[in-house]
Amino acid sequence: MRAAFLLLLAGLVMLSGTTTSRAADAAKIALVIGNARYPDNESVLSDVANDAQDVTEELKRAGFVVDSQSNVTGDAMRRALDRFYARIERGTVALIFFDGFGIQSNRQTYLLPVDAQIWTEPDVSRDGFSLDAVLAEMNTRGAAIKIALIDASRRNPFERRFRRYSAGLAPAIAPNNSLVFYSAALGAVAATGKTDRSLFVAELLREMRAPNISAEQALANTKNGVVAATNREQVPWLSSSLTTEFSFAGAATRPPDDKPLTKPDVQKQEPQKPICEVPQAAPAPTADDLARDPVIADLSRKIASNANDVASRYKRGQVYAIKRAYALAMQDFDAVIRRAPKDAEALNNRCWTRAATGNLQGALADCNLALQIDPGLSDALDSRGLVNLRLGRTTEAIKDYTDAIQRNPHSSSSLFGRGIAARKSGGDGATDIAQAKAMNPDIAKEFAGYGVTECVP
User: Fold this and answer.
1) Residue 159 class from Cβ within 10 Å (0-12 exposed, 13-18 middle, 19+ buried)?
2) Mind listing the GO molecular function terms for this protein (predicted)?
3) CATH architecture of the domain covering 287-449
4) Which residue blocks in 391-449 are alpha helix, DSSP H?
5) Residue 258: C-alpha distances to residues 52, 261, 355, 411 (Å)
6) Where in the chain is the domain with CATH 3.40.50.1460?
7) Quick one: which of 267, 345, 440, 456 has the fewest CB in 10 Å?
């Protein structure tokens, strides 16, 4: 009886050893997508291509079979995901790295291909790829460990078309045995840089290379490194449900000729600026800049072929306004409102454009009419808050912004505006201003373009 028990115990030990080593011995596959060239964005995401290449090389060194794609359209991204899913076998370690633009809608994070046409909320789920769905499919195909590394917490032009705030990314609903890692906190965005490497990826690769630590610990160390380097201005988000041990690097040492990673110079923190130093607003685009814009060119062709194409004219007006070509935006919004006098969205957009150019009484009339037509239109409340703020009517501005925040708590524009209005009326406003800046690091620069700063006489 004792011999039988010992034999059974030995068998269990052997089985246990097999289970714990399986993750290290399993097939490891990865899909790396770096989307840098979005036609709708004003500039190329200069760090994306290099970061995606660096991640690809590191994953290959760690034993992953990697499919690396850059600047993919929706069709190409769908095909890449299908190839990725098809390679997953039961027990596989499956990893996706996405660098580009992401957006949240209906409490889900969507990864955007370069040709996404986002004008309204429903367009996000139509043209974007749900991260929740990607993780679920990885699990359905039998992946033992699911890893998603997402560097997409950026302010992007799509959000500003149908809501003037940047909501960052939403929490992922991930299956068991998953690691999900975002470059910034939920609902927040990282400051936009113009360097050839990002701090997030530099820290990530450094920790992936460290031997003898788990993947979960490597990502936790990455988070701590980014937090320390940015003085807590950027706080990555990590979610883990791992029950299986897994390490990116294992116990092996690195080749002697391997080049050490260095942090990008851009992320060196400057001393805190005085609170009343006015940020410089971005310059308006030149006529050549607008002529080269592919979205404007496409919309202009549609309008030229059909003068009654109100939808295209409205969209072009939005693009002009976002790019600060306000005179051209006004022409398009005027044309839309002549054809549809009760279009509350168009009236709100014209209100915002008039406010930005200093036509405050005209802006107030547009916002009031928009809110008569649609009293719950949060964007119009936000726009009227800006008008009242510029008119010096701080009590009215605070009320408008508060009403807007009640309908949309994630509006960085409304939070920042309410904070400034509170400060100008003798209050504090610091909490609102800090929260707005955490959600959108460029919000002070945006308001400076409207003639509104944090300085109080």
Assistant:
1) buried
2) cysteine-type endopeptidase activity
3) Alpha Horseshoe (1.25)
4) 394-407, 412-424, 430-439, 443-449
5) 18, 9, 55, 45
6) 21-250
7) 456
Rounded Cα distance, 124 and 102, in Å: 10
CA dihedral (440, 441, 442, 444) in degrees, to 10, reads 100
Q: What is the CATH number of domain 21-250?
A: 3.40.50.1460
Helices (H), 230-323: 287-292, 294-305, 310-322
Asked if residues 65 and 29 have their Cβ atoms less than 8 Å apart, the reply is yes
pLDDT digits 0-9 by tens, 32-90: 999 999 988 878 888 898 999 999 999 999 999 999 999 999 999 999 999 999 999 99
pTM of the model: 0.71
Portions of the chain given CATH number 1.25.40.10: 287-449
Residue 314 banded pLDDT, cuts 50, 70, 90? very high
Taking only the tens place, the pLDDT of each residue in 389-422 is 999 999 999 999 999 999 888 788 899 999 999 9
Closest by CA position to 261, among listed 196, 202, 201: 202
Neighbouring CB atoms inside 10 A of 209's CB total 17
Cβ 237 vs Cβ 185: under 8 Å: yes
Residue 200, token pair as written in the block: 């997030």
Position 235, amino acid: V
Amino acid at 427: G
